[in-house]
Amino acid sequence: MKLFISVDMEGIGGVINYEHTCEKGMEHEHARRLMTGEVNAAIETALEMGATEVVVSDSHYAIPNQNIIIEELNPAAYLINGTPRPLSQLQGVDESFDAAFLMGYHAREGTRYAIMPHSYHGKVVRELNVNGVVVGETGINTYVLGDYGVPVILVSGDAEAVKEAEQLVPNVETAVVKWPIGAYSAKSLHPTKAREIIREAVKMAITKKDQIKPVKLKGPVTVEVKLKSTGMADVAELIPTVERIDGVTVRFVSDNMVRAYRTFQAVVLISSEDLQKDEVFQRQ
Ligand code: ZN
User: Fold this and answer.
1) 190 labelled catalytic
2) pLDDT tens profile 235-282
3) Report field, pTM of the whole predicted structure over 0.90
4) Residues 113 and 164 in one domain
5) Which domain covers residue 59, as residue numbers?
6) Which of 10, 52, 69, 84 is the most buried (most CB within 10 A)?
7) Cα(105) to centroid of ligand 1, in Å?
């Protein structure tokens, strides 16, 4: 069994604010160890359950995308890190994989009582809508994996991230490692306990793997991205396949989800051009 693991940081137990998630944060080194520890718990159990190859994609933006501490990672796993990469948080996956885990995941932008909720880029994306459904990173990544025929069998993170997964993937196994109080506060499990919960969830997920199907969107994929400023939409609409539909919203249609994901990344990247100007002119 080939297993793909995409791991973010905001949904790791004990991680609560930017001191953990930003590379200059006082707690970032600590958060890197917590992240590596949760992934290791999953890898060890997956190997015991018959995984023959494990690829881990470091999917958190800091450093950039170099948060997992490689010498502490289980030696059986491959690590994909750094940026840019065409498949972003899913770089490394293809049709040959049997299952995927999304670990350390967080809720989408605007979710009440969730740890640092955002959809791909917290300063750029107000709302991401795929074929009429508002999704966050759990959703868009589940659809892209679906294009490759890979089911998401386990999602770990805060209680709100896990809810998003349950709404999208029937029978998905989940591991809640913390319960948010506000955007920057939570009740977390001790790391030892969080890893135990993850081990149990991995056992369950692999045992019932055949009951969990890939979530593949049929036909053309329509994506609408509501941005955080009109300046962002001004530049996003310069991309030839992207159309402006109102002051802050752009739309594009792709034949499949993988292409849509690439265009979405381009929209976010080009829109982030506007960030510095935004900070200069809108600080009051
Ligand atoms: Zn992240």
Assistant:
1) no
2) 999 999 999 999 999 999 999 999 999 999 999 999 998 887 756 555
3) yes
4) yes
5) 2-119+136-211
6) 10
7) 8
